[in-house]
Design a protein that fits this description.
Length: 488
């Protein structure tokens, strides 16, 4: 679907052209056909967006929490009213199947706006008496926050960042990944329609340089990034060096799934598939290291292989399709190279391992759902984040042994345990070094539950009540009820 017009920047409640007049082309991952040209934000545009956000902040931060909540609730309603349009936009832009995007992207974004709409009126501080005085705390917004997104959940990511930031009274300038520019400005438009004052949510488009201009901007108080761990290190250090900004970092992972010999195996297979093949495997929390107890591994693999071979891969706009293309040709090549490395290093290829044969899929960036077994802990495919549909299966015999191996990674985003033993489930949840642990399920992210990573998978948390803490700061106000007792 070629858009007629160029996609401009969304600043101050409307679309504006990039000051340099420069644009870049965005393409559809299913066909690599152009969708439209996108205005490229340079430093001057970032300055304008931050300036506009500052003006928006002056209005928005002085509104009551209840009034802010009403705008966010209206925006949630508008997202739901535009569910089909937004789901199709996301499918076109990110290649995510239409069988997923209405629920996983649009509903998830709307739920998030609704949740923080409710919280906006409930943010308070504490009051305490001390000696001849008392103090209270105020929870205050930070100012202008920068949001920088990855390309796998473009709409969800802007919602997950903007909703808590705005609920707390901040304004935001958001930069989507350059590969997926379409849904964020549409979401900002709907926020304007919901009554958001101009400038409170702005969208600038561009590459890493645009992100860098935001991260280094003196008018920005906080940076919230979703991206790779290496990008996170650069962004966090630049944010600190420029003006000691607050940061939230949602970064990569290489998460373990533990399947014990007492597990419901069909359910464990469902968990492993959810955690490797949904969204073509382009999910940060994915359990790409599946540790299966040696006594049940053959049975587990039989069931897993049959169900994986039945996955329908194809054009993501066909609602019966379960897996679409990867985001870009470059990324397809990265994932295929990892598969070759897996073969070379001696992993046993059970399913997939290349591109589909169907000629009508040749223009898209497809990779077959792929499973390797007989993997070992040192293999490259077991150690590095692939961000594609490539599952590594390893075996174990002993709980202590598997916990040690599962934790032997620089990442700590998520983990999962399948067992019918309640004690073991809680023991594993305690011992696994990760920000999230799913028990007998995988990759479900209700908005009420905090989300974020341990170790090099991140800093700070999104979602849940705690997300507000990362978009606000406390001020203590001390009030005397008697005179000062000055020693001079
Ligand atoms: P990248 O780290 O390449 O990019 C993320 C965003 O940062 C993009 O908008 C990118 O711009 C921008 N960027 C890159 N370099 C800089 C810089 N120096 N300063 C400021 N901005 C910069 O990640 P991907 O987009 O490739 O996304 C995949 C990664 O994201 C995976 O590692 C995945 O695990 C992680 N992720 C983590 C999630 C979580 O919640 N923990 C959720 C989803 C993904 P541009 O697009 O132009 O390169």
């Amino acid at each position: 679907m070629q858009r007629k017009d160029d996609l401009k920047l969304y600043i101050g409640g409307g679309y504006v052209a990039a000051q340099s007049g420069q644009t870049f082309e965005t393409v559809d991952p299913a066909h690599n056909a152009p969708i439209c040209n996108v205005h490229l934000a340079g430093k001057a545009d970032v300055d304008a967006a931050v300036g506009s956000a500052r003006q928006g902040f002056e209005v928005w931060s002085r509104m009551t929490g209840a009034a802010r909540g009403r705008v966010l609730q209206k925006a949630a309603d508008l997202l739901r009213a535009h569910r089909d349009e937004l789901a199709r936009l996301e499918t076109l832009d990110a290649g995510k199947p239409l069988s997923e995007t209405p629920e996983a992207d649009v509903d998830s974004g709307a739920d998030c706006l609704e949740y923080f709409a409710g919280l906006a009126s409930k943010l308070g501080g504490e009051y305490q008496e001390v000696d001849d005085a008392f103090f209270y705390t105020r929870r205050e917004p930070l100012g202008v926050c920068a949001g920088i997104g990855a390309w796998n959940y473009p709409l969800q990511i802007i919602c997950w960042k903007a909703a808590p930031a705005l609920a707390a009274g901040n304004a935001m300038v958001f930069k989507p990944a350059e590969l997926t520019p379409l849904s964020a400005p549409r979401m900002a438009e709907l926020m304007t329609e919901a009554g958001l004052p101009d400038g409170v949510l702005n969208v600038v488009q561009g590459f890493a340089e645009t992100g860098q201009a935001l991260v280094n901007h003196p008018g920005v108080a906080k940076v919230s990034l979703t991206g790779e761990a290496e990008t996170g290190k650069v962004v966090a250090s630049e944010a600190a060096r420029s003006s000691l900004k607050h940061v939230t970092m949602e970064l990569g992972g290489k998460s373990p799934l533990l399947v014990f010999d007492d597990a419901d195996l069909d359910n464990a297979v469902s968990g492993a598939m959810l955690g490797n093949f949904a969204t073509q495997g382009e999910v940060c929390t994915n359990c790409t290291r599946v540790f299966v107890h040696a006594d049940v591994v053959d049975d587990f693999l039989d069931r897993l292989v049959k169900r994986t071979q039945a996955i329908k891969l194809g054009d993501p706009s066909d609602p019966s399709v379960q897996m679409g293309p990867l985001i870009s040709r470059e990324h397809q090549k990265v994932v295929l190279d990892y598969i070759e490395t897996g073969k070379r290093e001696g992993a046993n290829l059970l399913v997939g391992g290349g591109v589909p044969e169907a000629s009508e899929l040749a223009d898209g960036n497809y990779v077959l759902p792929t499973i390797f077994d007989r993997c070992t802990d040192e293999m490259t495919i077991v150690r590095e984040e692939i961000f594609g549909p490539v599952m590594s299966v390893l075996t174990f015999r002993d709980e202590d042994e598997v916990l040690k191996r599962a934790n032997d990674t620089r990442y700590g985003l998520a983990s999962g345990v399948f067992t019918r033993d309640l004690n073991r489930a809680h023991r594993c949840a305690r011992e696994l070094q990760s920000g999230i642990c799913w028990v007998n399920h995988y990759n479900v992210t209700p908005i009420e539950m905090t989300f974020g990573g341990a170790k090099q998978s991140g800093l700070g948390r999104e979602n849940g009540r705690q997300a507000i803490e990362y978009y606000s700061q406390l001020k203590s106000v001390f009030v005397a009820t008697g005179d000062c007792e000055a020693p001079f």
